[in-house]
Specification:
Layout lengths: L4 H18 L8 H7 L4 H17 L16 H14 L3 H11 L5 H17 L26
Length: about 150
């Protein structure tokens, strides 16, 4: 399974956001620059940062996010693609399911609001992800396919 440009944008931003947490002090790509290059509105970057901050602080377990050069996707990366695609298609229940798998209950509403905002703003900017049906079941442990980045 190959990723399209919109999916690559989400994965690149995610990996760049997480990279300083994985390897503090090492050089990292700037996730804000990735947002600018994708012509995502500034408000989308703010919503993405809020979503990621909530996930970082509210995760009930360690999430599998790969380093920027890794050619395959981690379970949480596939889950984020499914979450954004579902919200862009109006699938709040599917997005909530992904977040409930990752987060403590009290973190889910705030994360969902931030994710909804990010999904709406990126869709308005023309960054529409493919149908969430293509990544059904992606957010749950043990169900992640391993697409390759190109």
């Amino acid at each position: 399974m190959d990723l399209d440009a919109e999916e690559l944008f989400v994965i690149a931003a995610l990996r760049a956001w997480v990279a300083p947490l994985q390897a503090p002090g090492a050089p990292h790509p700037d996730w804000r620059e990735i947002m600018r290059l994708a012509i995502a509105p500034a408000a989308a970057a703010t919503a993405f940062d809020m979503l990621m901050t909530i996930i970082a602080h509210g995760a009930r377990r360690s999430l599998d996010v790969r380093s920027p050069p890794c050619p395959s996707l981690g379970e949480a990366e596939v889950g984020l693609l499914a979450l954004v695609a579902a919200l862009q298609a109006g699938g709040t229940a599917a997005a909530t399911e992904v977040l409930r798998d990752w987060l403590w209950d009290e973190a889910v509403p705030g994360a969902l609001r931030a994710a909804e905002h990010f999904a709406a703003l990126t869709a308005e900017a023309g960054l529409q992800l493919p149908s969430p049906d293509l990544v059904a079941g992606a957010g749950r442990r043990g169900h992640a396919p391993r697409p390759t980045l190109h």
